[in-house]
Write a structure and sequence with these properties.
Blueprint (H helix, E strand, L loop, with lengths): L1 E5 L2 E6 L2 E6 L10 H12 L7 E6 L24 H5 L3 H16 L7 E6 L2 E3 L1 H8 L2 E5 L3 E3 L14 H8 L1 H10 L3 E2 H7 L4 E3 L4 H14 L2 H14 L4 H19 L5
Parallel strand pairs: 3-4, 4-5, 5-7, 6-8, 7-10
Antiparallel strand pairs: 1-2, 2-3, 8-9
């Protein structure tokens, strides 16, 4: 069932598994404000029974990053150019960037597990979109790069927090400041990729992972995800307390004593 198909984004749902496809292969799925709004809308349209969201890109590249048309004086049709935005008040610019970020924020909702299926280029905004997901399965030809700093900018689409969490501060700084490519073997070694597979096995590997995740009881997965997501911000003792509270809820539910 197709719930959305516009501005280079297609959302389909098959029972408990949704697929969000970047569908502008001719431009290597380069991103634009219209695409970001469509991605945010896709998140709002998910039926309540969806447990897994797969993010994929059509064609040879997952996403080549921001469409460079954004930096031209003309910008995109019906959109202010980035140059025009830069001339506005700080509060206006902050609000616009916050709106753009909404395309990247919903993938880690505790009621979902999101999987990015990444092949070819995942550059800049494309890298950050892959980082927005909980898990990443990548093809052997994957090329991650954070090119914003090379352009005189900073990564501002929510990618810095998960990147530091996955690879640590020093490696994250080096990857961002140099803008270099991270290929499949390194991505798996440093924790950017959960799994690396041959290109022709990418869809099958993602389907197998989604099936394994769906096999576990939903409430247990939700509680576990929340525990793990909050662990970095808690002390050891606070995490112990959170574990006890979560387990008490699960035991009561299993005993039919839940609220």
């Amino acid at each position: 069932m197709t719930l959305l198909d516009k501005d280079g984004v297609r959302l389909t749902v098959d029972d408990t598994i949704a697929t969000v496809t970047l569908a502008n292969a001719a431009k290597r799925n380069a991103q634009s404000p219209a695409m970001w709004r469509a991605l945010a809308e896709a998140g709002s349209l998910l039926p309540g029974n969806v447990r897994i969201v797969v993010l994929r890109g059509e064609g040879r590249s997952f996403s080549a990053g921001l469409d460079r048309q954004a930096f031209t004086p003309e910008g995109f049709d019906g959109e202010p150019s980035f140059l025009d935005l830069a001339r506005g008040a700080d509060s206006e610019l902050d609000a616009v960037i916050a709106e753009y970020q909404e395309a990247f924020t919903w993938w880690r909702r505790t009621d979902l597990v999101s999987i990015a299926a990444v092949q070819g280029h995942a550059i800049g905004a494309g890298f950050q979109l892959a980082l927005a997901c909980d898990l990443r399965v990548v093809a052997e030809d994957v090329q991650f790069a954070m090119r914003e700093t090379s352009l005189g900018l900073v990564p501002d689409l929510t990618g810095t927090h998960p990147l530091v969490g996955l690879v640590g501060y020093a490696r994250a700084l080096e990857i961002c400041a140099t803008g270099r490519f991270v290929h499949a073997a390194e991505a798996e070694r440093v924790g950017l990729a959960n799994l690396v597979v041959p290109n022709d096995e990418l869809d099958g590997a993602v389907a197998d992972l989604a099936a394994a995740l769906v096999a576990a009881p939903r409430d247990a997965v939700i509680e576990t995800k929340a525990l793990l997501a909050g662990a970095a911000g808690r002390t050891y003792e606070e995490q112990r307390t959170a574990e006890r509270a979560a387990q008490a809820r699960r035991l009561r539910d299993l005993a039919g004593l839940g609220e």
